[in-house]
Design goal:
Layout lengths: L2 E6 L9 H11 L3 H6 E8 L5 H9 L2 E6 L6 H14 L5 E4 L12 E4 L12 H21 L2 E4 L2 H11 L7 E3 L26 E4 L9 H11 L8 E4 L8 H10 L6 E3 L5 H9 L3 E4 L8 H8 L4 E4 L4 H5 L3 E4 L4 H13 L1 H15 L4 H18 L1
Parallel strand pairs: 1-2, 1-4, 2-3, 4-5, 5-6, 6-7, 8-9, 8-11, 9-10, 11-12, 12-13
């Protein structure tokens, strides 16, 4: 009789985000032979609308279970408690694909993406300590009660060990993420959109959350402008109404004599492909990341990467990254100016990016995840 595996996808949302990418990539690349050995079910939120997600679900041999369980927070714990109590005999292994491993589940698999919340939690000051305490409890619980923990980078594994204890070392398995979602069905890059028509620009994808470090990026670009060609722009996904007053003032100052900083608003996949493909370089100034999928996306589109020398980013970018200190706007500005000052650097780093990209694969990640399932099932 086949073993039954339930994969939690309740955190997949309509808009592009790293967690949804992780889950969809995993489901899309489970080897066909694994379906001969296991029965896979996928737990999803009712009413979720995401075309690529449903395409993967419909093309795979998955049983779909819809639920109203909240994606995060205490409400999720309560909803998951009742779901597991009712359905615990319908599966042999549960994979929690987000940081929110169920508090009352024993013997599952937990994926931990990052510990950003410990320092850069976007919440009001009077709830910060309470939220951090709750999230710490959830992660410590996953380390204690799960059969295995997947960390998406060695940096995340080390963060877990430093934060919760070295005794969990053997339980944590590093499985890198992949990038094949960038490929169209015919094996070529996805089609370009004509929504944007920027010429020479540095591209940033992300949000205005604190750890994304927009503040220092804007300061750095303001510094770098004095030494950059007059037509170079900084193009960022997202909206200006999420900026604080100081950051908005910097943007206003930079754009006094022409639009040099552009916020695109929310963009869909097609536009994102164009923004990556046509960029001079991609910049990733994060203070903390658990992995860094956009770096691999940039490599795939043959775009050089300028990025922080912190957390997991050097692990992902390797020798193909042009590094800077994200806490120092002068350092970021120096990297930008240095990139434009030497055209040969662009060509060299594109080639390095191709070599680095080959080290990562969604297929490899899915195979390693299935192997971990097998190990857990044999030990349970």
């Amino acid at each position: 009789m086949k073993k039954r595996i339930l994969i939690d996808a309740t955190t997949v949302v309509e808009k592009i985000d790293g967690l949804s990418r992780y889950i969809i990539n995993l489901l899309a690349h489970i080897p066909k032979e694994a379906f001969d050995k296991y029965d896979f079910s996928v737990l999803i939120s009712k009413g979720v609308k995401r075309e690529e997600f449903w395409k993967v679900l419909n093309e795979g041999n998955f049983k779909i279970i819809e639920t109203d369980i909240a994606p995060i927070g205490p409400k999720r714990d309560w909803g998951m408690f009742w779901f597991l109590r009712k359905n615990q005999n319908t599966f042999d292994l549960f994979h929690s694909t987000s940081n929110q491993y169920p508090l009352y589940l024993k013997g599952g698999v937990a994926t931990v993406h990052d510990l950003i919340f410990r320092k850069y939690l976007d919440t009001r000051w009077w709830t910060f300590n309470l939220a951090v305490a709750y999230l710490n409890r959830v992660l410590k619980n996953s380390l204690i009660k799960s059969s295995a923990v997947i960390a998406v980078s060695n940096a995340t594994k080390q963060d877990l060990l430093d934060s919760y204890g070295k005794e969990f070392r053997d339980k944590i398995h590093v499985i890198y993420e992949g990038w094949e979602h960038s490929i169209a069905e015919n094996g070529s890059p996805k089609a370009l959109s004509d929504e944007f028509n920027f010429k020479n620009y540095i591209f940033f994808i992300g949000t205005t959350r604190k750890h994304k470090n927009i503040k220092n990026l804007l300061k750095a670009f303001d510094i770098a402008l004095k030494k950059l060609p007059g037509h170079v722009q900084l193009v960022l996904t997202g909206r200006t109404d999420y900026l604080d007053k100081d950051d908005a003032a910097v943007v206003e100052k930079i754009n006094e004599h022409g639009e040099r900083v552009v916020f695109t608003g929310y963009v869909k996949d097609e536009a994102l492909v164009s923004l990556f493909s046509n960029a001079d370089a991609f910049i990733y100034p994060s203070l903390w990341e658990g992995f860094g999928i956009p770096i691999l996306e940039a490599f795939y589109y043959n775009v050089p990467v300028l990025c922080s020398n912190t957390a997991s980013l050097p692990e992902v970018a390797g020798d193909a990254g042009i590094y800077f200190d994200p806490y120092n706007p002068e350092s970021i500005a120096e990297a930008i100016v240095g990139f434009y000052a030497d055209e040969s650097k662009r060509i060299a780093y594109i080639e390095k990016g191709k070599e680095q990209l080959a080290k990562f694969s969604s297929t490899k990640a899915a195979i390693e995840t299935i192997e971990l399932y097998e190990k857990c099932l044999s030990n349970n």
